[in-house]
Amino acid sequence: MATEKLYYQNQYIRSFTAKLQKSEKDEQGRFYAVLDQTAFYATGGGQPHDTGTINDVKVIDVEEVDGEIHHYVEKPLEMQNECVCEIDWNRRFDHMQQHSGQHILSAAFDHLFSYRTVSFHLGQEICTIDIETENLSEDEAFQAENFANSIILENRPIEAKWVSEDELEKYSLRKELSVSENMRLVIIPDFDYNGCGGTHPKSTGEVSTVKILHWEKQKKNIRVYFVSGNRVIQQLHEKHKVIQSLMTILSAPQEKLEEAAYRVLQYSKELEKNIDDLKMKLLGDEANVLINGAQEFNTHKLIKVIFTNRPMAELQQLGKTIIANTDNIVVLLLNEQDKKIQLVCARSNDVNINMNKVIKQILPIINGKGGGSDSVAQGGGDQTIASEEIMNELLKSINQNLD
Ligand SMILES: [Zn+2]
After folding, report:
1. Which of 33, 162, 319, 368 could form a disulfide with 344 if both were Cys (CB 3.0 to 4.6 A apart)?
2. How many angstroms is it from 308 CA to the middle of ligand 1?
């Protein structure tokens, strides 16, 4: 038997008693109760379900299945004649505000610019409507929001009416109905006529206010993000908290925040550039020290160093700086880091060794990967043997490849 829907008689019922008709378990093992009448709204028409309690047992979900309203409960209800039911009114009233705010905002876009709403979503925190236009200007959004808020301020009645197909012709609907029986219209006189099965307050004033937050392209439409009612205060509260905190961090009043943030970013970019310049200068000095201490190697000079925890990019830069600043030199740089080993092998243009070939001979020893050009090659792998041994292997390889 179909459950009697009390929210269609009076949308403000928040506690009621009902007879328990069924207490069962569905195919997914969820416990549910069926009552002879209910004020719990079941998910539908874009409005989320109510929550609350039946005989102090939590109702976590509500669905309509073949006219029967299933109240999904945390634990099975004991069969007894009368149940005391309580709806989470804050949640329900919030849904009523969001849902009616959506009607009003959609109608405002429709009246002002003929942008029709093709779909909407009432989210946990933010609601959206998708309107049929490829672009939305700041000014249009501002006008629609203002118009919606003027309708709210006028405190117009919001009426719900069940109509037959014949009666339907009398109304100019914002959107075609998706059903052909049990048709219910939600009406804001001289403003909006819309088919809807959801719950709404009795007048627009209870929506309190509508605020558009932002919008973005969604395929060929525009998705408008907005909040209504108490959520506007909540949003204002959260945004204000962020702004207050930014004002302290940046030592600037609200109207100067943008400028202050921009200045900080600029400053940090300049610092980064200064640091890069200084690093290059340090590497140049380090290269000079290494060049001065280079040892004899056959008829060439040799620099070999084992570092710990140095970035690979720095090692490569150091190798390149050395071979650019001196002739007849071979450079072997190793770096130990977290049981890994990295190597850079370089030589000046007048030394006839293929460094790519040298490094490729060594990489298998450390299960490594890498490569490079004839003059500079780099790679990395596991610290399978001591770095001194890897260095010796590199020297052996260089001796083999030397003309
Ligand atoms: Zn509605």
Report:
1. 319
2. 67
CA–centroid distance, residue 189 to ligand 1 (Å): 15
> Ligand 1 centroid to 36 CA: how many Å?
25
Residue with token string 């204002």: 236
What is the whole-number distance in angstroms between the Cα of residue 322 and the centre of ligand 1?
74
* Spatial contact of 227 and 126, defined as CB atoms under 8 Å apart: yes
Cα–Cα distance, 311 to 303 (Å, whole number): 19
Report how far ligand 1's centroid is from the alpha carbon of 198 (Å): 5
**Ligand 1 centre distance from Cα of residue 186 (Å):** 7
Map out the domains of the chain with their CATH numbers: 4-87 (2.40.30.130), 93-237 (3.30.980.10), 278-401 (3.10.310.40)
Q: What are phi and psi for residue 74, nearest 5 degrees?
A: -65, -35
Going across the sheet that includes 376-382, the strands are 295-297, 300-308, 329-337, 340-347, 376-382, 369-372
- SS3 label, residue 199: coil
Q: Residue 195: which residues within 8 A CB-CB, separation 6 or more?
A: 173, 175, 177, 178, 179, 183, 184, 185, 186
* Ligand 1 centroid, distance to 121 Cα (angstroms): 11
Please report the pLDDT score of residue 403 as a whole number: 60
What is the bridge-based pairing of β-strands 183-188 and 369-372? unpaired
Region for 369 from its dihedrals, namely left if φ exceeds 0, alpha if ψ lies in -120 to 50, beta otherwise:
beta
For residue 167, the CA-to-ligand 1 centroid distance in Å is 19
Find out whether 216 and 141 touch, Cβ atoms under 8 Å.
no
* C-alpha of residue 187 to centroid of ligand 1, in Å: 10
Ligand 1 centre to CA of 228 (Å) is: 14
Question: The tokens of 396 are what?
Answer: 């052996």
Q: What is the pLDDT of residue 183?
A: 87
Cα 197 to ligand 1 centroid, rounded to whole Å: 6
> What is the DSSP annotation of 207-273?
G--EEEEEEEEETTEEEEEEEETHHHHHHHHHHHHHHHHHHHHHT--GGGHHHHHHHHHHHHHHHHH
- What is the sign of the dihedral through the CA atoms of 130, 132, 133 and 136? negative
Give per-10-residue mean pLDDT for the chain (403 aa).
Answer: 90 96 92 96 94 97 93 91 94 97 97 96 95 97 98 97 85 76 88 93 98 96 98 97 97 97 97 95 95 92 96 94 94 95 95 93 94 95 94 91 71
